[in-house]
Amino acid sequence: MSTSRGCAAAVPAAGCGGEAELHVLAVDDSSIDRRLIERLLKASSYRVTTVDSGKQALELLGVGKENSGGSAKESSALREIPVVIVSSENIPNRISRCLEEGAEDFLLKPLRQSDVPRLHSRMVGSTK
To answer: Can you supply a Gene Ontology BP term from the record (predicted)?
Structure first.
């Protein structure tokens, strides 16, 4: 069952010439949406890793089981990683809750190339 929700988190990584590039962890239960997000971000020179669940994302970030009781943003290991929610569900209460829980932004699907600059500004502004 697809919930049509996704998430992107950016982590600065050493790039060519010592400058930082953004490494985006895209989480979405839809393989089609994961491929779309990956294609859009790679076209804008992001390094992209995709997974299909929040559990996989937490394990990849190395916080798996230790954070199962609360919000992912409560973990000191995750607090500095900017999170942008990408969803097809345009429900004001859900959007507000995501932002209150620590998301940097909320974008509606389908993600378009024109959304990438907005995504970039949220990621870069939060990782400085």
So the answer is: phosphorelay signal transduction system
